Amino acid sequence: MISIAEAAEHAAAHAEHGGLFSDPETWVAITWLIVVSLLARPVFRGITAALDLRREKIRARIDEAERLCAEAQELLSTYQRKQREALQEAKDIIANAQAEAERQAAQAARDLEDLLKRREQQALDRVAQAEAEAVRAVRNKAVDMAIAATQTLIANHLRADQASALVDAAIKDLPERLH
Description:
With 179 residues, the protein is mainly alpha-helical. The protein has one domain (4-178). The chain has 3 helices and no strands. The chain has helices at 4-14, 24-157, 160-178. The mean pLDDT is 86.
């Protein structure tokens, strides 16, 4: 290919022969420029169209990425909110469980105290009952011994008429002495 500078030199050299347009190399150069310009326009349009198409694809990908990013942000905020709610619910459950445990412990302490009081009262009642039984047993034994001693004294020292009078008096006083 001929450079433009060479074409200009050839034109100047051939200008003496009939001008610029009379030289065939000038016409070749002009034709070459016309062909290149005619071929460059569709190639340029094709390149431009391909670049526009690529730009649109990139724009669509960017838009899709932005949409996905927005969705992800929305999901993230939703899950963060749910996590906060779950944590709060867990704290509430723990607080309720602790309060219930404290309430049950207090109730168990009251129940134990009531049980101990009942058992203490039952023990006191048993002691009082045993004491009363012991007093009755001692009293019965004393009565039995007094009766035996009286029988022995009466049998050894009293006459029949005196014994009869004493028995009548004892039977008469018996209800008052037992109560």
